[in-house]
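This part of the workshop introduces the protein records we will be handling. An example says more than a description, so a record of this kind follows.
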Amino acid sequence: MSNPSAIFRHFPGQRILVIGDVILDRYWWGEASRLSPEAPVPVVRKQRATVRPGGAANTAANLAALGATPLLVGLVGTDRESVELQGSLLERGVAVDWLIREDARPTTTKTRVIASHQQIVRVDEEDIAPISGEAEGRARAAIAERLESATAVVVSDYAKGFLTPSLLNVAIAEAGRAGKRVFIDPKGADYARYQGCFLMKPNRLELSILTGMPVRTHEETLAAGNRLSAGMPGVMILVTEGAEGMTLFADSRPVEHVVSAPRQVYDVTGAGDTVLATLSLAISAGASHRDAMELANEAGAIAVSTMGTAAVTLPQLEAAWSVRVQPG
């Protein structure tokens, strides 16, 4: 990378509009030393509970941790979980002013039970039906209000009902008219709903769903990635491949691949959010696509080496990068 300090220095000036499914990630931490006499399952003695932003909220928290200003638009209920999620966001420097609230809908919550650094079970509370027309109207207004001051737009799709086809279509079209790049973490098989974006970031499983092709190896990633790229002309496709790094497909340009640095993997929860946040921020700050991939790869490696949903900070990323580029 030619001048990483210049890229990092521009992180704090970026205002990134984040649109998507916000989730409360709740963790119950404890010990499991015996099996239940009622069923062959461990008995976990709960010791503490923590909450963190998940989904699009985690993407926003990662942007804030990297020094940017995230402008978050998503949907929550009016329940206790909504209060917990908003409190968790505020603690991390993310404004909650543009969250859309719906009385009849629960805040999407994932409760994970962790014992001895192992996830025992996850319990989800959610309503994935499409949001009401009234809520969508409020979301459109919030997006329109924040778009003008945004540097770029990040869409985090977790298929929880917020990103209706019409809301996505309007958000991408309005961003295009405003000259703002749109970075998308996709969900589901219908890639046409993301047409018009600047970059789409599926992982291998998501790429397989989008193309109907097997994607288990890097060779299969190349075949499926080329097919998806051909179906989305003008859109860059960045496929994250876990321990095998990430691969960028960009129309007629040669495919670019970045290898991951070896790391102890404790938890992959939220690593995709970290990669998306870092990538969009780096490109917005003036990094080349290759340099942005390298930085996003490094941030993802930091995230998976942490237990639980993690937001990688700018000092962490700078320190990891400086160690990586030291000679010898």
